[in-house]
Please model this.
Amino acid sequence: MATKRTVNLPGTTDRRVDALLTLLAENTTIVISGAKIAKEIGVSRQQVWRWIEKLRLLGVRVKGHPRTGYHIERVPDILVPQMLSHRLYGTPFARRILHFFKVDSTNSVAMRLGEEGEPHGTLVLAEEQTAGRGRAGRSWSSEKSAGIYCSILLRPPIPPAHAPLLTLVAGLAARDAAAEDLDALPDIRWPNDLLIGGRKFCGILTEMHAEPDRVHHAVVGIGINVNHAKMPADLAATATSLRIETGKSHSRLELLIRLLRHFDRYYNQFLESGAPPILRRFAQVSSYYEGKRVRITTATEGFTGTTAGLEPSGVLRVSRDDGRGIEPVLSGDVAEVS
Ligand code: BTN
Model:
């Protein structure tokens, strides 16, 4: 399909701020004069000063001032496109990366971009979401620069019935990426919650625009609690972050790069070989695959049972306690019961 390039999407981070950050990040050991920065990125020295002040407000530790020059001590953990794109080379995600310091929801932006013909692989990232969305109409708490808030626009050549497998692909990718930051292996609660010690640190919201026989576009939105020092009081019993679990900060940039590389690998495997390798991997890494006692809550009912594997479409099979046999669960909440 023909694609239209949206060059300056309102609200996205100015490419020259991105260039400024990248320049500083690539020269962490030296002081660069304001004049040199201004010349390299094509703005006035006053503008450089104003942007440096803005970055400081966002927690980037920039030393120096306009007379002597500037430097940063370490690469800032901000997910701007220039820092990401060369690390994503060879994947479809390197070409079109949109970054916001603040946005309502990266999924909402990516769905709109999908309507407007933006290409497969477009990434939408935000430091903060003011209306982050979760499954079943819930909200997603999106503290500034503490988590990863990422939406991937896909144009998968699959029928809508296979779309749940995209969620499994994303869950497996996030699980492999996060495992490197953790001492214990994370679990996946079907379809897409990543858990450590029974508490959730990552959720996935897949939305799509489909016709009866094909997916027009799909958006896979991934939220990961990374460097939250504590979770909001109403979530603390059920949610956690990588930092809470390990007692140290983690690089969001490195985690996101690993996530997207794993996503690319599982997605290609899915397109080439279909569902079987994805289902096999899910069976290996999720304690919810089979034999787990669960309570299922769907839009219409609640029941208890024992998980009994996945259907080829990714739907969960649950053997009901009430003797009504195996129930295929297309969507709903899954909770462990003892
Ligand atoms: C869930 O577990 O309920 C799904 C949470 C998905 C949150 C992510 S954060 C990035 C993207 N933008 C959103 O508004 N939601 C998803």
